[in-house]
């Protein structure tokens, strides 16, 4: 007769394959969460940024360089966990427009990211922390970028979140005009295209998607109640361009954040950064948002939640022209996702194609 220790060891050996198969379904993997110390540090930053309002309109605004009546600026917010592979292309994009933009970089603290000396990214790295997919850390990172830009320059008027895999599709002049030129006085034929207030935030806000319920219940069934009923929950892209009004709204929020910072139980349906911003802005100011993004992404052959990644053989003038085209009256301004080795062919197209509108 087998001894008890032998039976127990044999049973444990047999149970290992079952445990590996069913374990992740019974006990979901724990993803990176936000510590109390980091949360308090962020709250202090957000409070400082929330009161860093632009000077009253009755006074003549003065820029950091001492220029009176300066123009509004675009704050470009780079969210990255790798090196800034396309820094030379962005350098070319920004060249000659130093008074019309600012750059801020949140680089994952666990990743070695070069501070590219001599280019527009030099010295533009903000205090950063770890980030991870399927966790609220990417929301926190984007909020820290918004707060840093709000504090840094009162002339920052649009806040464009992009990733290290994003590239510009037009010249800086075209991008600036797109964001800051008021729409024409609507006629009967154009009224539908100019239904939003100016200035407006460019953020994708979707409802009625097939995966909406799974994403809503990713933290547990009805755990989002009462703050966020299912019919108010939205999804969209994590890349957007927000007005200053909406950037302030995001960093002031506490109510919805308490729900979105909760850990997910179903990580297959958990994309917090794609849910928080569309839901918050849809609930607070839906008519102040276009409900579409200015960043083109190809999801036709996505894998593991990642979109199609363009490789050097695909880079061509035709690709740039195709990526610009939208199904509405606007042009896409940015595109992702490009592999790092696309830099050389993109630089070859920079002056001849990309920055020629």
UniProtKB/TrEMBL annotation:
Please verify whether the record's keywords include Membrane: yes
Where primarily located?
Answer: membrane
Q: Name one GO cellular component term.
A: membrane
Q: Which GO terms describe its molecular function?
A: glycosyltransferase activity
Signal sequence extent? 1-21
Localization, per the record, is: Membrane
Q: Which Pfam families match?
A: Branch
Keywords assigned: Glycoprotein, Glycosyltransferase, Membrane, Signal, Transferase
InterPro entries, alphabetically? BC10-like, Glyco_trans_14
Q: Which domain of life is it from?
A: Eukaryota
- How would you describe this protein's topology in the membrane? Single-pass type II membrane protein
Protein name, per record: Cell wall protein
Q: Which organism is it from?
A: Actinidia chinensis var. chinensis (Chinese soft-hair kiwi)
